[in-house]
Write a structure and sequence with these properties.
heterodimer, A: mainly alpha, ABC transporter involved in vitamin B12 uptake, BtuC, 77% helix, 0% strand, B: 11 helices
Chain lengths: 369, 302
Amino acid sequence: MKSWFRVLYVLLIALGAAVAAIGMGAIVLAILGKDPLAVYTVILTEPLRDMFGLTEIAVRMTPLILVALGIAISFRSGILNIGAEGQIQMGVIAAAATAIFLPGLPKGLAMPLSLLAGTVAGALWAGIAGWLRARLKVSELLSTVMLNYIAAQLYGFLLRGPMIDPAELQVGSGTPQSVRLPRGAWIDRIIPGTRLHYGLVIALVAAVLVYILLWRTRWGYEMRAAGAEPKAARYGGIAVESCLIGAMVLAGAFAGLAGAVEVTGVHRRAIEGISSGYGFSGIVVALFGGLHPAGIVPSAFFFGLLLIGADMTQRIMTVPANMVLVLQGAVILSIISAKVLIADKYLFERFARSLSRRVAKRETGEHAT
Amino acid sequence: MNIFAFITNVLSIGIPFSVSLLLASTGEMFNQRAGIFNLGCEGIMSMGAFLAFMAPHTLQGTALEPWANMLGILAAMLMGGLMGMLFALATVTFRAPQGIAGIGLHMLGWGVAGTLFRFFVGGVTGIPGLKPVFLGMNALAYLAFLLVPASWYILFKTPWGLKVRAVGTYPRAADTMGVNVARTRYQALIAGGVLAGLAGAYLSLGQAKMFADDIVAGRGFIAVALVYFGRWNPFLILGGSLLFSIAQSLQLAIQVQGIAFPYEFAVMLPYVLVILVLAFAGGSTVRGPAELGKPYNREKRV
């Protein structure tokens, strides 16, 4: 009986959370004078109609999975990385610079080297926040946000200055973007004619590796312990500070890799706005996926769908694509609230008691008639 | 250029800059004194800036035009209060982790403001013929500075202020003494939201005289950092806001003087300053609310 109550309880809360998130989006759509149902239908079905939509979802999934994996590691270790946006940009810059300034390397060397450079750059950028938190107790929430703004400016400066495509200066258009990366650094396309590239495979392999790291190694255990109960972990001999820095560095490494994969696989040059909100979307993907690689992959598919769907809605129904931010914000608020309620033993007890009383009453009532 | 004129120049630009920071961080101080860390301040400011911009934008040429600024400010404050309440629902009633909830609220506010703006207005637009009609923006600035002693008085000399500090320091004791912890935290979050909305309104109506998606540009997050820097004390927060805005106007003035360095680095400066300030002042929570960031559950055994 009790396990049935439990299932019902979880379902009810999940349903409530879903209604809350969908409802918040619906209110905004209603203000725009749009039929929420019609807009949601377009968002959720339009991208699935053809090959273009499907491959584009997979293209978005790649950075989402990578960023979300890093965020899952950091959240589980008790340090909240919301600086993925900046870490992605650092990854893009480092990967692009490596590819551009080392031309003529063979393919087997140039591409991995670029990805490595992006990963290291992201890791170092995040490491600043990890170090500040572990050594100086600076809230990582604030420092990573600030590092986002700093990275955005640094990125803009490099693209407008030292790394700008000389052709842009000659023509005089001055679009802030780098030259095209040498072919050796490109990640190949899986299906020619689409933008789907082998970065997706990298992301899926990374998901397996993160699972192994977190649940099958000592370091993963220590990081999760440090996140779950830092005092107990410290008493148990775990170096909590090192775990914090390590988790942050790993989170940054994944975000940097996402940036590197994005620049070598999709755009093949560093352009403005390349991170396009993946840093924030990654947080939602990670939370929606239960901070577990097995959940993150489907969750990345869902939010990839949402991102493409919102782009399409903008064209078809003139609903601005910013709508995706609204939905993501609403999803975050709903999920984290629901999570606490689901874990609340007292609330569940109360629910189960009142339910069993009601069931009992109905049964006795039935006997009477 | 003589040095006196230079200083006057820096101050006359810098002091108005501080108003939105001051309003937002004073609001955030009430949140944090009550034990709730509201990172969604940035999102509330986005919505406030948007609504305050929308009122004169849509009411232009109507009978309500003379009241447009005032209505915009009121709408911003109302929305700020509502968003504070939404945040309270998530973090106080549902006891959701506050850091992530704040990011959620930020994305929600930022997204809604951006969506509505792009749909109803379009690209970047100034407010046509904006004039300080009923309530001049200077009045808002004076109000912000008057708020400093006022909030000190409220926080340290009134029963409500005592309740706020109590639920942020030792909610169980406050609960035992008959203080309704949830209600006090709701009140503090609504008050903080109203002030953040007002800060956003000042940003679009008074400072930029326009609206863009990213008009807040991290000021909400800086305001949160200023609360740490200001040790949860209104006067120190005032000092922090002034320090920040004057540093920013100094940087502008130096750029005007023709000392060439990439402007991206100039824009970066306040964010770097926040990290440095937090590195020196961020760790210590002495004189801060002891239960900051921890949800209160009266049913939980201790």
